[in-house]
Amino acid sequence: MSDRIFILGAGRAGLGLARAFRTSGCEVVGVHGRLAQSDTEATTSGELPDELSHASVVLVAVRDAQLESALGQLAEGALRQGAVVLQVSGSAEPSMLQVMRDNGHPSGTFHPLVPLALPDLAPQLLRGACIGIDGDSEARATAERLAHAIGASTLVIPTGAKGLYHAAAVIASNFPTALLSLAERTFVSAGIDAPTAHMAARSLFLASAANLLHEHGVAVLTGPIARGDVATVRLHLESLADQPELLAAYRTLSRTLLPFAREQGANRVDVESISRLLVDPVI
């Protein structure tokens, strides 16, 4: 691949993407952040460096609140003629992208559908992942090329649907972490020590994730709601009665499983009984 990549933003996403591109043999001409970082791979800070003018693609990997100012900085920088500008946010629609287009720079989105919390893991996590893309035709073509270079595939974000698209991404990437923490707390409430609780919750989560590699969610759903087990759901609600936060989470999430239980063929009367239990106080 002949693209020369400059990354504006040296946070976890920017560093993770830089690591993934370099691991795949792509040329990263620079990574630029607000602050010097001596403990990470080479980055620059302060004024935009000369390396920017050598880039055919600029990835803007800053926080959403900083996007407009970062793009404004780019617009005033020494960008190579025709350089493609891709922002990494999955939810933002920065107005400065149109300014970049007006200045002759094809622009769009390159949003990794991967939680880039640990830059060292980025090459592994991005291989086989999806990248959400949008923008004008040249920007999308460039985004597809970059995605394929790191072993990822792409999906086009429908026009006007970034809110729903990003909500789905947050549900898939952030909510499991929250649920794992709630499961650990519930194990601890039952009297299990914290390290064992973590191990138990983690092993259950990883086993569920492994099942999802082979089937869609509904097909691998297990547990009392999937089988219409009214008595066990009642027991859970009674056991959580003195922990309002956990009880509220259990009720809300259990209700989302009811349509799937019906799809799996659970007894309709039992499913309706569970539905009432999840709304009415347990007596």
Structure description:
The chain is an alpha/beta fold. The protein has two domains: 158 residues, NAD(P)-binding Rossmann-like Domain (Rossmann fold), CATH 3.40.50; 107 residues. It is 47% helix and 13% strand. Strands 3-2-1-4-5-6-7-8 form an eight-stranded mixed sheet, with helices on both faces. Strand 1, helix 1 and strand 2 form a beta-alpha-beta unit. The mean pLDDT is 92.
Structural class by sheet pairing and helices: alpha/beta
CATH fold call of the largest domain: Rossmann fold
Helix content: 40-55%
Distance between the termini: 65 Å
Unreliable residue stretches: none
Work out the radius of gyration: 23 Å
**Gross geometry:** elongated
Quickly give the CATH architecture of the largest domain.
Answer: 3-Layer(aba) Sandwich
Number-wise, the strands total 8
Q: Widest sheet: strand order?
A: 3-2-1-4-5-6-7-8
β-sheet strand percentage = 5-15%
Average pLDDT level = 92
**Would you list the SSEs in sequence order as H and E?**
EHEEEHEHEHEHEHHHHHH
Number of helices: 11
Largest sheet: 8 strands, mixed
- CATH superfamily of the largest domain, by name, is NAD(P)-binding Rossmann-like Domain
